[in-house]
Each structure stands twice: as C-alpha cells, then as structure tokens.
Design brief:
It contains 13 helices and 4 strands.
Length: 390
C-alpha cells in the first residue's frame, strides 16, 4: 500500500533534482564554453587573458572584503568625539565661545622688550558639529573604502546593478545614508551656522567643503566626459576643509553662530530629511511584500540606518554646540530622550532584511520598524522645534 506513495515522492525529488541540475547547468554553461575556447587559443592570448582574469578576480576579492568588513563601526562613536566638550569647564560654553582668554602675564623670564610677558593666544571652543562631520567623512573614505565608486561596484552582478540584487550593496547604502546627512550638515554650516546672522562673509573652508561634498557619489577615474577625480579623493578634501574651519574656530578666527533661530532652522532640515526617508521606506513597503526575497529592501533599510547613524552623532554634537540655548529653553530632558531613542534604533542590525506584510508572523517587516524609529525621532525633533518657536 505504501509503494505508490513512495514512488510519488521519489518522482517528486527526482524532478526537483533535475530542476536544480538544469539551473546549475545553465549558470555554468558560459564558464564551460569559455574554458573550452580558452584551451584552444595560443599561449600569448592565453597569457593576456589569464592576466586579465587574475586582475578581475583580485578586484572582486577586494570588493568582497570592502563590502563585508565594516571597519571602526561603532554606534557609540559620538562619546569619544565629544569627550573634551563634556568636561566641566567646557560643558556650558557655546561653540565659538572664548574658553582661554589671552594671558597678560607669563612665566618668569619670559618678558618681552617692554618688560611684560607676551600674551597667550586666545582659544575658543570648537564646533562639535564640524568635528563629528569630519569624523564621519573620515569613517566613510579613509577607514573604509568608498563602495559606490569602486570599479566592481559599477560593473554590477553580470551587468545587473548591485542594488537590484541581494548581494554586496548593504555597506554602499549605509555609506550613502551617512553622506546624505553630511551634505545637509555642510550646507547648513555654510548658510547659517558658520556665519553671523547670515550677513557676514561665508567661511571659505566651509564653502570648499560643501562644494566637495556635492561631488558625484559614483565618480571613478574615468567618467562619461573623460578623466575625472574619484569620489573618495574629493571627499578627503572636504574632510580637510572642515577640520581647517574648526582649527580657525579654536583660534577665534572663525564664526559659529549658536543662536536659537539657527538651531530651529537646522532641526527643521533634519526633520525634513527623516520624513523624506520614512516616505521612501513606506513606498518600498507598498511596492513589495516579498519578505526575505525583496532585493531592494536591504539597501532601503541600510540607507535609513546610515542616516540615523550619522544624525545620532550630529544631534549629540548639536547639544554641545548649543548647550546654553538648550539649557535656557529647558530642553535638556526632551533632547536626551530624543537621543536615547535614536541610539536605541541603532541596536536594530538584522542579518537579513525582510520586507514582509506588516501583519505577517513569518516574514517580519524590518522596513516598517525602521520607519517607525525614524518617525519617533522626528516627532521628538518637531517637539523641540515647537518649544524653540514660542
């Protein structure tokens, strides 16, 4: 009685095996054909093609390493950057405030020709927003390879863009999310934060940094218009310019306008960015509910994650640069709550991103959860903005 059932399942597994074998054969056929063609060529052509293949394998191996190892990834990175500003003598100072006024008397024996000690150069508090911005640029292009402009990233998976596959695009999306924040921040530094009431001269270092950060994110050495500069080298210049601005600020030779209306405008821009990204996530949720098999879900998720990763540092730095404004408006508690919520969202690091139906118990909706985290942080920012606007 069991023979028909056994035979039925035997045939089923045979068909499955043949199907798998057929798929593998289709995938391997081009390589087998290329191998037969290669063995029939002369030794010179074999050497040239072999060298080209070796280079291609090396490029893919480097690409695999660059996309899978995230060097110095640390959601708590703002703590290290802001350690000096959180010290008791700096905690209540705004960015740009004098923290070590010029000395009128020096050590014995250090007098000048007039019999008085030379004055110590004044020192001002640096901008932590600029410091975090420079650190994030350094993280993207120095401590890690910039994925989007790598040759293999541009070649794709047999011509298919990596973002349309489930492979090797997570880190690139994460970096692009950070870069979105850096572009927004450098723009605000130029337009409002790095000048007095919007009427003073634009700081040239910040202007150069903004120009560099607007460079094409996918540029390689050769583009459609001929030779060009690769993206990482241009972004490194932006890093140097932002650091140069902070050096000038510490020497009291630059301006940081830490006013409440500038903070309000900056928070407006941040809230707008978060709202835009949450809408992108919603669009992907509505476009697909393929669960683990949605190839676009991972890059959408990691773009939003990169944005939150960067804004966590920028918002932590903003609290330091505008410390007296936040204290005077009694915003410390709600600001701390907002920062904790953003930091908690960074604990969400799933191995595989699922974009399932929101009511599904098998396929979770990681995009919906990330969108909720974004909107929750945005609601806190809007609340802070409302207090500042009163």
């Amino acid at each position: 009685m069991l023979d028909p059932i056994v035979n039925f399942f035997t045939r089923i597994f045979q068909w499955i095996g043949r199907g798998i074998g057929f798929v593998i054969g289709v995938v391997l056929w081009p390589f087998m054909w290329a191998g037969r063609w290669y063995t029939q060529r002369g030794w010179i052509l074999k050497a040239v093609l072999g060298l080209a293949l070796l280079v291609l394998v090396g490029l893919y191996a480097n690409f695999f390493y660059a996309t899978q190892w995230w060097n110095n990834f640390d959601p708590d990175y703002p703590t290290k950057i802001l350690a000096a500003s959180n010290s008791p003598q700096m905690a209540n100072a705004l960015a740009g405030d004098a923290v070590a006024p010029a000395a009128t008397q020096g050590a014995a024996g250090a007098s000048d020709t007039a019999g008085q000690a030379p004055a110590t150069p004044p020192s001002c508090k640096r901008s932590e927003i600029a410091a975090v911005t420079a650190d994030l640029i350094d993280f993207n292009v120095n401590r890690n390879a910039w994925i989007s402009s790598m040759l293999v990233s541009k070649l794709g998976f047999f011509g298919v863009p990596w973002r349309n596959t489930p492979f090797f695009d997570n880190k690139a999306a994460f970096q692009l999310g950070i870069n979105q924040v850096l572009r927004r921040t450098t723009t605000e530094l130029v337009d409002t934060l790095g000048r007095a009431r919007g009427t003073s001269r634009i700081d040239q270092n910040l202007q150069d940094a903004r120009t560099a950060m607007s460079w094409d994110e996918n540029a390689w050495y050769i583009g459609l218009r001929g030779p060009t500069r690769p993206t990482p080298s241009v972004y490194r210049e932006a890093n140097q310019k932002v650091r140069a601005f902070n050096t000038s600020l510490e020497q009291c030779q630059a301006t940081f306008d830490a006013r409440a209306d500038n903070l309000l405008q900056f928070l407006d821009r941040i809230a707008g960015d978060m709202g835009s990204t949450s809408d992108i996530l919603r669009g992907q949720i509505e476009a697909s509910d393929a669960g683990w098999f949605d190839p676009r879900a991972d890059d959408r998720f990691w773009f939003a994650y990169g944005q939150l990763y960067a804004y966590y540092g920028i918002l932590s730095a903003t609290r330091s640069d505008f410390s007296s404004v936040i204290r005077e408006r009694n915003l410390a508690t709600v600001w701390d709550t907002m920062q904790v919520q953003v930091r908690d969202a960074l604990n969400m690091q799933p191995w595989i991103i699922s974009n399932g139906n929101e009511s599904s118990f098998i396929f979770p909706s990681h995009l919906a959860t990330m969108g909720f985290n974004l909107l929750r942080a945005r609601s806190q920012i809007v609340e802070i903005r409302g207090v500042l606007d009163r």
